[in-house]
Write the structure tokens for this entry.
Amino acid sequence: MSPKVFSTIDGNEAAASVAYRVNEVCAIYPITPSSPMGEWADEWSAAGMKNIWGSVPTVVEMQSEGGASGAVHGSLQAGALTTTFTASQGLLLMIPNMFKIAGELTPTVFHVSARTVATHALSIFGDHSDVMAVRSTGFGLIASGSIQEVTDLALIAHAASLKARVPFVHFFDGFRTSHEVQKAEMLSDDVLRAMIDDQLVAEHRARALSPDRPVLRGTAQNPDVFFQARETVSPFYAAAPALVQQAMDQFAGLVGRQYQLFEYHGAPDAERIVVLMGSGCEAAHEAVDFLNGQGAKVGLIKVRLYRPFSVKHFMESLPASVKSIAMLDRTKEPGATGDPLHVDCVAALEEGLRSGWGALKSMPVVVGGRYGLSSKEFTPAMVKGVFDNLSQATPKNHFVIGIVDDVSNSSLPYDPDFSSEGPEVIRALFYGLGSDGTVGANKNSIKIIGENTDNYAQGYFVYDSKKAGSVTVSHLRFGPKPIHSTYLITKANFVACHQWVFLEKYDMLKNIVAGGAFLLNSPYAPEEVWDHLPEETQRQILDKKVKVYTIDAVKVAQASGMGRLINTTMQACFFALSQVLPREEALDQIKIAIKKTYGRKGDQIVQMNIDAVNAAISNMSEVKIGSAANSGLHMIPPVSSGAPEYVKNVLGRIIKGEGDDLPVSAFASDGTFPTATAQYEKRNLALDIPVWDPEVCIQCGKCAIACPHATIRMKVYDPALLAQAPATFKSADAKVPQWKGRKFTIQVAPEDCTGCEVCVIVCPAKNKRQTVLKAINMAPQPPLREAEAKNWAFFLSLPDVDRREIDPTKVREQQMQRPLFEFSGACAGCGETPYVKAISQLFGDRAIIANATGCSSIYGGNLPTTPWAKDANGRGPAWSNSLFEDNAEFGLGFRLAIDKQREQASALLQKLAPQVGEALANDLLAAVQKTEADIYDQRERVAALKDKLKTISGDDAKHLLSLADMLVKKSVWIVGGDGWAYDIGYGGLDHVLASGRNVNLLVLDTEVYSNTGGQMSKATPRGAVAKFAAGGKPAGKKDLGMMAMSYGNVYVASVAMGARDDQTLKAMIEAEQYDGPSIIIAYSHCIAHGIDMTRGMEGQKLAVDSGQWIMYRYNPELRAQGKNPLQLDSKKAKKPVIEYLNNENRFRMLTKTNPQAAKDLFAAAQTDADARWEFYSFLAARGAAAPAEAKEE
Amino acid sequence: MDLSTTYMGLTLRSPLVPSASPLSREIGDIKRMEDAGAGAVVLYSLFEEEVLYEQRELQQALTAGSESFAESLTYFPEPHQLFIGPETYLDHIQKATDAVEIPIIASLNCSSLGSWTDYARKMEQAGADAIELNVYWIPTDADLPSDAVEQTYVDIVKAVASGVEIPVAVKLSPYFTNVANMAKRLSQAGADALVLFNRFYQPDIDLESLEVRPNVLLSTAQAMRLPMRWVAILYKTVEADLAATSGIHTAEDALKMLMAGANVTMMASALLHNGVGHLKTVEQNMVQWMEQHEYESIEELRGSMSQMNCDNPSAFERAQYMRALKTYKV
């Protein structure tokens, strides 16, 4: 056997590295947190890496997990060794095929980074609710708890599946294990070859469907035989556990690590034990060792093979001394007698004791509890809490641990200060920004230590819920022994603050130990640092005797050409202070790591990083600690002082990082949250904010419509109102004719702006004397913050313009409409949110929105705060996210309910017309609700109706009162990205379009799966580099608009706001007014395009000018008028497509990776554009079409 | 007709040489240049600054937004191979030299002294027959004295000439206080040829958008006067060979340059405008003229109208300014 090779990898890479090498086909679909497994496989396949049989596995991205599992099933049936990687909803979508695959006794392993299944809310984090949902499929379930186990059990699962003919789900905890980086021994091809029996592979192939030996599978069976035929598989399940153990034993013989189906760890004479699976076993392992070291008699059973559940093996793992057992589940099965592992173990004990298996002679006290849902921390302190419960005379059953359940009072108490970590472990916390490279440098640090020393290393990274200005916290441990601490660091020896502004926001020193080191990236000189620290920080430094070090890392980074990337500078300082390696050796290793990481990116990139390292140490100084906490500076509250109590007490605590401390009672029991709360979260992200110059401004509204975060707004108002204005509030005379005599203001929300600069780029007005200046110019935020915050508050207090006065097809007027989508967590410069915001402005007061899972559901619905807002009357969009795949159907459901309720209301109104008043009833029933004035009038009528109804007795009046609001038009919007519309949700989308119902679909087309990290979709254009299209997408973009137009009665528009914002508005208004299905396909630039996000709108224009994107509107109403329904809103391309392609690195990258492919695909992209234009212009130039047939109902 | 000439020690079958331009980006076009009679080809320039800019830009674009949000830790597949250094250019040199018989002259512009030598060596290793140093530099720092600018030119030439075995030409700016002195110093520094002159693209102002825009204008025939004067003046006064470039569009233009003393005449705008085949036309017209005027070889006419050999040497000097103006008819 080859010598041992250690690597520092995460769980996803560990699973993929085995799965890839022992399979021939991988069919996958991206889903967090499993996506990287498929991406690794795709990258290896693209690089020509071979499996153990010398062949490069085929990796195929499908349109959904349903599709992926179908392809896996087919590939298995045709004889290829096939695998897939998934999680959560993805695994659920595979269930039908999993029943089939297992029912046909087909060996395969699905690798699952176990993730919470969406219930009252979506969560991307880890628990076992997904894998528990597939218990009945017939798949075996094998659990890994650490990176090393993932590597080992992945292989054992594959080997055992071939032997047993039982398919397996091999799972490990999402994020905690899938994304944790640990030092682990890699398995060589030799080990893999030794474990995978080629004879069994041949047998699998021999069982495959082949016309050379035809058989039939997938029959339809009847009551006479199905039952018997179904029972034929039982012996295979009975034999499987022993075969898995056999594989584990064989593996131990090869590698030296011995696994058991149920692995006991702890005192041989333990009286109290816990049973659990997954990463929680690691924390429990650490706790058990510590407690036994203190004289306790405790133990744990790590469940490796959960299905098929071997009662005998389980019983044999229990020490005879056991008196009480706690079964711990990382899932919730409401209404069950207990959560799954608990119930299984109880049943097993009953059967096992009765059968006399194992050493245990009598039934112990057994309780079950729940922990760690959605990656909730599970610590040794909590394990001790569980053991303490077992010591009680009557231990609490059906408990929860790790939260405060003050509703059902199910929670166990525990001491959060209990720690089982050894003194030999170096524990470091790094607070950084996503954009400053902190995480990348820390991953390198782990590799440096893990791969170049005998130390073990662990890294876990906590990310933000926002995409703009996102904060990262890196948790790094280094030590001489294997690290079992699968929980966040709360006792850090070292804390680094990579951004000075964090000091006023985060309590970074709460987790530092006495005498620990605090490294600060500071813009201040060492002697000035102390006086600039908030008093809260100063106090902790004094109390804990913290040593403080400082460096102006930005200065060092800029001098090295690194800009704001301070990562390598800070990394060098960490190594110097932590002394985890001798200083010189550490610096040398950093440089080697830099060469390895950036070598392919060019010499200059390498050199810049090395320069930053070289300059780091000499620029670092120790800070002289003052004698008292007296800077006069304080941390800022998480939400503004005017926020409602709920926002302060619940959302504010989440923002502050205290969400873990909130009790169950803090939350609504059905997942409901108030809207309009993002306004209270003052993130103060922008270094520079836009400043308005009223003298230069032409009041066109382009800045406001393009603003992704609704932080630049405009109003016209009565000049008299200026009397109360703050001194620095700016105004100009309104230029729009109907508002002459009023004042006009453009105001920026200084504390909400992300500083993306999009408004400045789109501003068309230049200062005539100094053309570098426009009507809006960027200026540093800090000196403006206070005054502009007052101006913003005053601006908000000015009344909104009466919507009836506004022509919404004109940008300069439409932008007076109040955005009801504001301050979202989207990326700075986002290309999607301007469309979403426009919808909220145009129709928000009557909109109900179904939002597909994806970027828009994350920036729209990720806690803590909500960007969907309300107008002055308290109206605003009602929003919900169901799933990724069902969004069109979900939205159609809204429409069905609204139509039905409106129908009922109309019927009741007709019935009650004599009491209500015939005139009012008739007006209500006959109302045409196309314009704002129409809707205003109808609202007035409904208000009158309600008043009237309150005076009328009887059930009909009561019913009508509860339905009356449905008489006002409701605007149903179905919003999602191209992954939803073109791929996973296409079937539903198509069906909804065909329904003829009045729904509006907005496709935010970024041409790639943005939220999961840039995987190819069918919207990805030819030649673009994306994940799963590393060689440039060979196929052209699907023409979704043309497909929708083929129905004839669907309103279809293709828009690009950056090219023509008024066309976007027209399309939205027409779509909403059209009494039938509408779809708007909106070109949305994206960070996944590799572009300068400040210039995204210019990129949109270039897309249109080059013919890469065509703007049009297809309005079936025109057809009814005898006109051609298709109107082209683009002109013939005036630039070649290559000009557009060269502007975006998603295309340009191909010229750097495969110049020949770039040449060929770019030429084909031009041909696509030419053909598209020819076809569309032909259709648009046709004469008036025949009048439409009667509209479908 | 013997059209052969020598340039930097290389024997060329014709003095017509396409100068650095986008036309040499395609091997097929280089082959067509050879077929149309080119004596050699100067490849498009490799700008180190551009290479570095691309490296930085690509790195920035591909890592923007990464490691920030748990669901999307990256946005692009990790490339296994990236051609972002000079490799593509070096590969191009190799392909070009493999594809044609005529000499291939690589063109280089770097931003630091060390890089000039480093890149030049790489070009030599890739098979370039000669290197043209495209010192495309417009000094704008008011505190930078002229002698420092001049010394930079000399240093670059010295460094590269001593670092490679193949011949080295330098394409220089016409904006020196004393071009003749610079020519002499560069020749002494080791330049095997002087390419007269670099034509710096001048930006334009867009009145509608109020933006300054790079607006590439092709050279006109008038542009040849400047290099022609200096070729004539420098002929035989410097050791280095002379290449004339700018404004050479026709056979007549080329003949004038050769008579002024150029070893080779370089063309870009005319080929961009008329296509590579224009070389053939120029050659045919040149031959026709030479036959009509009973010349037998390029060698015979080269330098015949130089300052040294013409009947009115002072015509190339400033003293002619007043006379020129006097003869100008409004």
Summary: The two ends of chain A are 71 Å apart (CA to CA). Confidence is low (pLDDT under 50) at residues 1186-1193 of chain A.
